[in-house]
């Protein structure tokens, strides 16, 4: 084996010759999820959390541990007896009467010395009136059980400009909760889709085709024959098939079964697993290599219009415009090839050789793609874009509260997802009742009446409404530690997706029922 092969093997197995630094050891597991680019985005982020409640601190705990750059808790309240009983980030009885924000920041900061924490005891109302630009300076804003009128003002402020940060609205009562992410536009390159990119077996590039045809299967010894990668087997078998079928691919069920039998017929020993693998992957031969429909739909996005592109500063849409032009002009009319290969039955020599073929071709196509770029884009971003071009995502959101204003959408949601919609409506009713009179604890009757006013008096509420109304009426102001902990994990996960722009965040209202232990999404 040559020294070059040895180096490639070390690279492929990510061999580490020196000990990892402190940061790598601390964040090792999460770096496997979102890599250095995602970690860098986290460490550059500034999170504002409005409220120092048990749920709020639980959310922050799950953001501080993975290493956000900075967080501020905005809360003018003092620690109450109930706070001391349900918030693990307070000093119990010793915190009572002290600033809830300051007490929480002190303990949260102990979780990660690389994160900067700050308490702000001003009121949100005063900041909205005098220094709204302070709020818009953060990366993302999170609120929990915020007063209805203040929430509307905060939502309206952050919706004024697409450059303003997303707003995560969290509401909970007893064992029920929901949360919603307000954002204008969210583009994702690394969506981590389970859909794998095409290997181009039906349209092999020249070097791959020549390699497959150059192998003499009949003259190989049994060991070498048993380690031919399935990609090479299929390309060779498909070329042979085309010769006897006027250049056509297997189309009918009978032809496809016949093709699979021809692949298995190439075995020289019964236990050659690489040929069994080729037979299992034979569908790739008649699955046409083309631009996925989801990506084709993105090519019609209004953001790619000439007028929009002149004013668009986002590198994503310039890359997308280049991708559209590339797929139209390239011979294969497909996305740029990726050098990433799946695992397969093979030996080191054959696998590395195949990997080199794909890597060389992928580099050639990436350079061709870059020729269509009209603005300079960072090479690292180009590499990531090309590698993940098969799974790009563009999300567009709505302002907070839009769903509750659409009676037709609510009625439809009540019929299709009654449990989720009833819990959401019960939480909305609670918020409205608290806004009108904070001195009276909402009753089941008042909650039902308020829900009815939201959806319209002519709409009949489903039976599921009784359970949601009953739980909200039982514990309208109760913040349970287990609900707070569950919400803390779920909301923090979605916040990380928004910050890193990796993985696809939940769209619409995510509803949580910890009585029956389920989650659902409505109003997307």
Number of E strands? 10
Shape: elongated
Number of H- or I-type helical stretches: 26
Average pLDDT, rounded to a whole number, is 91
Strand order of the largest sheet: 3-2-1-4-5-6-9-10
Can you summarize the main beta sheet?
8 strands, mixed
Using the CA coordinates, give the radius of gyration: 28 Å
The separation of the N and C termini measures: 55 Å
Tell me the β content.
Answer: 5-15%
Low-confidence segments: 1-10, 12-16
Helix content class: 40-55%
> Structural class, from helix and strand content?
alpha/beta
The assembly state of the depicted protein chains is single chain
What's the SSE blueprint?
Layout: H1 3-12, H2 22-26, H3 28-43, E1 46-50, H4 54-64, E2 70-74, H5 81-86, H6 100-109, E3 116-120, H7 124-130, H8 132-135, E4 140-144, H9 148-159, E5 167-173, E6 176-182, E7 185-188, H10 206-214, H11 222-225, H12 230-244, H13 253-264, H14 273-280, H15 283-286, H16 293-298, H17 306-311, H18 315-329, H19 348-370, H20 379-387, E8 393-396, H21 402-405, H22 407-416, H23 418-436, H24 444-455, H25 464-474, H26 481-500, E9 509-513, E10 518-522
Walk me through what this model shows.
The protein is α/β, with parallel strands linked by helices and 524 residues long. 51% of the residues lie in helices and 10% in strands. It contains 26 helices and ten strands. The protein has helices at residues 3-12, 22-26, 28-43, 54-64, 81-86, 100-109, 124-130, 132-135, 148-159, 206-214, 222-225, 230-244, 253-264, 273-280, 283-286, 293-298, 306-311, 315-329, 348-370, 379-387, 402-405, 407-416, 418-436, 444-455, 464-474, 481-500, and strands at 46-50, 70-74, 116-120, 140-144, 167-173, 176-182, 185-188, 393-396, 509-513, 518-522. The strands form two sheets. Strands 3-2-1-4-5-6-9-10 form an eight-stranded mixed β-sheet, with helices on both faces. A two-stranded antiparallel ribbon has the order 7-8. Strand 9 (509-513) and strand 10 form a beta hairpin. The two termini are 55 Å apart. Mean pLDDT is 91; it is low at 1-10 and 12-16.
């Amino acid at each position: 084996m040559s020294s070059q092969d040895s180096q490639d093997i070390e690279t492929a197995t990510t061999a580490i010759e020196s000990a990892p630094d402190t940061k790598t050891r601390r964040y090792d597991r999460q770096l496997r999820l979102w890599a250095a680019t995602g970690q860098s985005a986290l460490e550059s982020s500034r999170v504002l959390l409005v409220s120092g409640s048990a749920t709020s601190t639980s959310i922050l705990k799950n953001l501080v541990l993975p290493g956000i750059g900075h967080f501020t808790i905005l809360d003018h309240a003092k620690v109450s007896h109930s706070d001391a009983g349900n918030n693990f980030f307070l000093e119990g009885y010793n915190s009572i009467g002290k600033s809830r924000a300051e007490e929480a920041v002190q303990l949260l900061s102990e979780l990660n010395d690389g994160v900067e924490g700050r308490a702000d005891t001003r009121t949100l109302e005063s900041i909205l009136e005098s220094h709204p630009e302070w709020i818009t300076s953060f990366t993302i804003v999170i609120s929990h059980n915020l007063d209805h009128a203040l929430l509307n003002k905060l939502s309206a402020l952050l919706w004024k400009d697409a450059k303003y940060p997303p707003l995560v609205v969290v509401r909970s009562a007893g064992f029920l909760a929901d949360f919603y992410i307000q954002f204008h536009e969210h583009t994702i390159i690394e969506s981590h889709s389970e859909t794998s990119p095409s290997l181009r077996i039906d349209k092999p590039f020249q070097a791959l085709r020549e390699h497959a045809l150059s192998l003499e299967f009949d003259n190989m010894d049994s060991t070498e024959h048993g380690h031919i990668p399935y990609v090479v087997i299929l390309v060779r078998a498909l070329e042979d098939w085309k010769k006897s079928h006027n250049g056509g691919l297997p189309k009918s069920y009978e032809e496809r079964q016949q093709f699979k039998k021809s692949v298995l017929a190439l075995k020289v020993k019964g236990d050659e697993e690489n040929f069994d693998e080729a037979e299992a992957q034979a569908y790739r031969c008649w699955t046409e290599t083309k631009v996925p429909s989801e990506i084709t739909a993105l090519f019609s996005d209004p953001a790619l219009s000439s007028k929009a592109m002149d004013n668009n500063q986002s590198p994503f849409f310039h890359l997308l415009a280049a991708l559209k032009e590339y797929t139209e002009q390239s011979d294969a009319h497909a996305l740029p090839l990726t050098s990433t290969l799946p695992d397969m039955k093979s030996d080191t020599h054959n696998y590395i050789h195949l990997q080199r073929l794909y890597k060389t071709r992928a580099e050639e196509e990436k350079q061709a793609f870059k020729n269509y770029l009209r603005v300079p884009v960072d090479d690292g971003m180009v590499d990531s874009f090309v590698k993940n071009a098969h799974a790009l995502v563009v999300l567009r959101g709505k302002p907070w509260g839009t769903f509750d204003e659409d009676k037709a959408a609510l009625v439809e949601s009540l019929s299709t997802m009654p449990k989720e919609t009833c819990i959401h409506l019960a939480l909305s009713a609670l918020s409205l009742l608290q806004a009108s009179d904070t001195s009276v604890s909402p009753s089941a009757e008042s909650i039902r009446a308020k829900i009815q006013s939201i959806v319209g008096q002519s709409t009949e509420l489903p039976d599921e409404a009784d359970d949601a109304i009953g739980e909200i009426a039982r514990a309208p102001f109760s913040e349970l530690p287990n609900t707070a902990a569950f919400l803390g994990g779920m909301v923090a996960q979605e916040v990380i997706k928004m910050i890193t722009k990796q993985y696809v965040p939940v769209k619409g209202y995510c509803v949580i029922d910890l009585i029956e232990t389920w989650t659902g999404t409505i109003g997307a």
